[in-house]
Write a structure and sequence with these properties.
globular, two-stranded parallel sheet
């Protein structure tokens, strides 16, 4: 998170592989990506978890999968997201 909404989408685009679909439960993030032409899918929250807490669990090799839809797990593995998070922290 860069705390600058006008630059948020471009900042994220610079760190991840090309994508055309965004999953988010945050209405502000959803609107930012829609404005840039992305298809957005609303995610319902899984308990009391934030993106910050989830990334911390991933980096620390703790159980994070219970907070995610099962469909997300193959994506995380395919793009080695956990190791990528460890590299950029």
């Amino acid at each position: 998170d860069i705390d600058c909404y006008p630059k948020y989408v471009r900042h994220l685009e610079s760190f991840v592989p090309n994508f055309d679909l965004v999953y988010s439960g945050n209405p502000i993030v959803q609107e930012l990506f829609r404005e840039k032409g992305y298809e957005v899918v609303n995610l319902e929250m899984y308990g009391d978890i934030s993106g910050t807490k989830l990334r911390k669990l991933m980096i620390e090799d703790k159980d994070y999968k219970k907070y995610l839809p099962k469909a997300c797990i193959p994506f995380l593995k395919k793009f080695d997201i956990v190791n990528r998070l460890r590299e950029v922290r």
